[in-house]
Amino acid sequence: MSEIFNTKKPDFFGESRFYSASTWLKNNFGHKTIKLAIDGGFTCPNRDGSKSTGGCTFCSDTGSGEFASSIDEQIELYARKWPNAKYLAYFQNHTNTYAPAEELRKKYYEVLANPKVEGLVIGTRPDCLSKDALDLLEEINKTHFLWIEMGLQTIHKETSDNLNICYDLSVYDKSCKELAARNIKFVVHLILGLPGETEDMMLDSVRYVAKTPGLFGMKLHLLNIVKGSQMEKTHYDYQPFDSIDSYVDLVVRCLEIIPPHITIHRLTGDAPRPILISPPWSFNKRTILNRINEQLHLRNTWQGKKYNE
Questions:
Q1: How many CA atoms lie within 13 A of 177 on its CB side?
Q2: Looking at the domain assignment, is residue 228 inside a domain?
Q3: Domain presence at residue 304
Q4: Considering the domain boundaries, does residue 305 fall inside one?
Q5: What burial class does residue 293 get, using C-beta atoms within 10 Å of its C-beta: 0-12 exposed, 13-18 middle, 19+ buried?
Q6: How far apart are CA 165 and CA 168, in angstroms?
């Protein structure tokens, strides 16, 4: 199967040269489908002292949830442009399975009671998927649309330790197996440009995640140094890439080694300009995405072209 896609761009990509999550969602629901970022009021095990304090060094003090707001406000805003859109509620801030199962049940089903919400997207950590949480997610998955997003960021232990992530790769592997066994879709986050990592190390992380059994999707983040993070103090002047072009080149090479059936949910960073410190060009999200698409066309390449089973 991989040999076919090595020689021809898959038709299910549509007009794109990678399998965007928006394309998958539109095909699945029949309409444009929008994620609504909400704050469930959760914390994190490396913030509350159970594992550490201060959070992951790259994470802002909002738990990477700067765009969260009320569901109804967001629907009202989006409905002006897409009156027929469907919506998924995205529990984004901090770790959204890090609570007793009954608390999780109350929060999840309260959101699902909104008739305009088609399902849930839940951001979490691989070490915060207890049996009770997994049982609840499996229950919801049988009656509602659901996917889980997990922040792995890197497969390299030294980098992970420096980021204060506080779990190792074996925990990630185990959680993926548990989710796959329950037929729950999951998306994995990686960060490109972490201090101390070479491009080969980043590509190794992409290859490892891309081969995860049961993987539904991937997010590739450009490292943003943001206000309120530990990196604001330790890496204020750090430049993960010297230019947009160098970042775009790496992203194109990452896409080439990701299997074509894996949905792509992000290709750059998305920090609000008021809190962004570095890289200064990161807020030009549209420019970065346009250049990625431009390079894919110029090189006559696409997601999965260099993937081998």
A1: 6
A2: yes
A3: no
A4: no
A5: middle
A6: 8
- The vertex-55 CA angle with 171 and 280, nearest 5°, equals 110
Q: Work out whether strand 225-226 and strand 117-124 pair parallel, antiparallel, or are unpaired.
A: unpaired
CATH of the domain at 169: 3.20.20.70
**Domain membership flag for residue 307:** no
For residue 193, what are the domain limits?
Answer: 2-298
Question: How many structural domains does the chain have?
Answer: 1
pTM above 0.90, yes or no: yes
**Tokens 């696409």 -> residue:** 302
- Encode the chain (309 residues) as per-residue pLDDT tens digits: 556 678 899 999 999 999 999 999 999 999 899 999 999 999 999 999 999 988 899 988 764 544 556 888 899 999 999 999 999 999 998 899 999 999 999 999 999 999 999 999 999 999 999 999 999 999 999 999 999 999 999 999 999 999 999 999 999 999 999 999 999 999 999 999 999 999 999 999 999 999 999 999 999 999 999 999 999 999 999 999 999 999 999 999 999 999 999 999 999 987 888 999 999 999 999 999 999 999 999 999 999 999 986
User: Which residue in this structure is represented by tokens 């990196």?
Assistant: 231
